[in-house]
Amino acid sequence: MNDELIQIDQLEDQIIDHPDERTRKELHDTSLDETFQKKLSAKAKEFESSSPMNDEFGEADDSISHDTSMGYQFLITKSHLNYHHQEYGDMQQEISEWFTFHDLKFIGGLDILLDSFESNHDMEELTTRLLGSSIGGDLSCLKNVLYFSFGEYASKSTVEEQVRQIIANNLKLLELEVYKPLITMLLDFMKTRIDKDTSEITNCTISKRVEVNYFRVLTLLYILVLTALHNPQESKQFRKFLSLCSLLESVVQFIEHWKWHHNNSYRVRYLVLLLNKLLLLEFGDKDQLASCDAFLNQLHHIKTFDNSNTGKPVLKCSPLDYFAFRQDLLDKYPLYELGGVKDLQDTWLNKSTDSSIEERYKTFMAVNAYSNSLSNSIEIPKTNKSHTVLGQLPAQPVHIATPLPSPKLMSSDFMSGGEKIRKSYQVNQSMPFIYPNEYQDDCSSNVPYAMLEADEILKNSVYESYSVKRLWSEREKFMKQERGYVDAYDDKDEFDYSFGELRLERPENIAEIDSLERVERFYSETFFRLHSIIEVFMEIIKANRIDRNLSLYEFELNPATSFMVKSTTPHENDEAIIKVEQLLLSQLEVMNVKEIMTKTAVGIILRLLQWFKKSHVLKYYYLSSLLFDQQFFNISLDFISNGFNNPNNQSLSHQTGEKRDDLLEYEMMVNQNKLMNPQIKIPKLEFFHNCLRMDPKSSDYTFINKSFISELPKQYDSKKLSHVYISNFNHNFASILADMLEINNKILIKNQSHRIFSMNDIKPSELFKMILINYDNEAFSHSILKILKKLVPYQGRKWKSMNMDLISTIYLNCKLSMKDNWLSGKDLGSEFHNSYDQEVALRALLQFYNIKRYSGDKLGYKLNRSDNLADIPLLNLNDLELE
């Protein structure tokens, strides 16, 4: 047999069963391992020399033919997306996204604002005039304040100059506290409209003056909030006033009110944009989120494993995984005494000796073993004896040390062309192993040292975050209440702290405490409104669709290809051209507005999930349950799929061809989609262009990507792999995609199989794989790999064999744990049987938490505390009459 024809999986048989002369000589000179390694290296070099990449570098053998090599560019080139995820953009971008072209006319026109400002530009006097005013009164002075807030555009010549003036002028407005009368007027307007809409009054229309003043107030507040975001040190008083007046909660309430009482005059689009920026300003950005996380770790004495002596990442293990391993150990070795193991004091610094890891283990397993109540489904230990397949394996018939007979000294039947015989040497690990049972002086039982060492390693790596500690604390209270041990509604623990006392104890963490208190107050006042808010956001996402081919807009708006421009009809063609152009531009503006609103909606959802998790894990679970109920999986993945595979995002020249080529279809899908197509920009309708009266006649409209990935310049690394870096793409859709993927990952809560089965039914792996291959970026890949890691255990062997590249990528890029058995598969029968119970148990725990901590009246629940055990009659068996 020639070396060239030997496959890698046959090298071992060639060396052991029927070695040739060359192999025998190598075995005589070297060891078996060295010979096998040489064979593998030779085969790897053969594959490398046959690669078409070497032809580009002149290193391939001329005698090797590459005619049969396909050499598709997307198979040998790794493309990277130069995208950095940001929570908000610069002032120019954010202000431009606020306005539409019609809004500039609605607020009075830019020229009228200038004329009004020239008559009176004393901001102190104007601020005084606003005090005590109502939104329905004569607020002509708002036009003066608006012009000042817009950066006095008539005296500016460039966009950069106007943006700098906008920041300076709005900082002055913040100093003058112009926001106080504006917020007061806005709150009064919202309260008045809610009262009128919920009353029996039939005529509740809004006058033109009130609608104009309402939009002007919203615009001024939005720009002030933007300025405060970019200048946090100069806006501390503004943030404090926002927190005191509860504008954030009022905006949420008004959006909920709009859902049930539709009114276009309420301008809900601007309320959603304002809500997004208020959340950022009052809660904090991602840096503040990380600071709060570090503060909570320090407050609750969490062992973070950050201070590793070796500098390498430390593998961790959850308490639930350790409990399952410990139960498996006791099932196998019943003589293993718990008292012989040291307590894990480092993990439980704030616990007494009775609350050590050993006591927690005994209590947890006893509660799960001797009761079938609802709370047991929240955290189920996955032991070997509970596994459907492993529990049915036969017990070991002989002592494990009994030697097996030596293999036959002949080649295997499989290598000679026969059928491969599969044998399983697994035994039932839950069956007690009673040998040996002799006691020694230095140990309570002769358990294998490897098992003792594994137990010690796992115990020392147990990591319990403050989220897990909070979850288990609430679960313990819920169990007491559910099983009737004691009234747990008034139970307190270390997580029921007072923010005022925390400020006195930790004055260096005032900012973190303020953020956590603001999140707590926001949730307590709006948790019963979140369902309606999520429904509004889902409708925003579903409305973001492209129903017309973008190539048509390109052809008609560009004079070189416009049909109307080239038309020679005798009628007044110039007027018709203007009307058609205005119609097309307005349609494109609507598409752009829908995309901006989708970006804002998913950004709000993700921000709430992140901050709720820091406040309390059950707040985060509650919001994730609302998203799951609103079918966020289906809506988001359908939106992403439609964004990549939509003929309206592709050029018409490709679609008119008679013959369909699968490779061409894939290439068009990868290169012409919502991510790769340029972002819709309309200079004629843009805010700053209209303020500065710029002439955009020379602009060339491009809505379909023409630069394919295969045509971009390549860069080669040290391993001779080509890399392509994509710089021109739609940043808005990239932000939507990153946030949607992260939200999907957060909805897939650990140990909640029902949600994983729901995600698995959609079959998102091919879509995720396409994104990973063609648009390598951490903002996408991090969430995708974490989702796939949760889905892989529920896939079959065929799927795993066809997606080994995904599995390898998960291993290389995701965090490893001490008990990383996600690839070995799950007990699908047991998981499916318990999945619905797990979801129901979680909902019961969430209901218990919300009723215990907050008022449940808004959710339709009422806690009756008048019941007394003394009112329940005692059961006396002697008084019963048996029939």
From TrEMBL:
Signal peptide: none annotated. The lineage of its organism: Eukaryota, Fungi, Dikarya, Ascomycota, Saccharomycotina. Residues 448-882 form the Far11/STRP C-terminal domain. It comes from the Eukaryota. Residues 78-347 form the Far11/STRP N-terminal domain. SMART domains: DUF3402, N1221. This is FAR11. One of its GO terms (biological process) is cytoskeleton organization. One of its GO terms (cellular component) is cytosol.
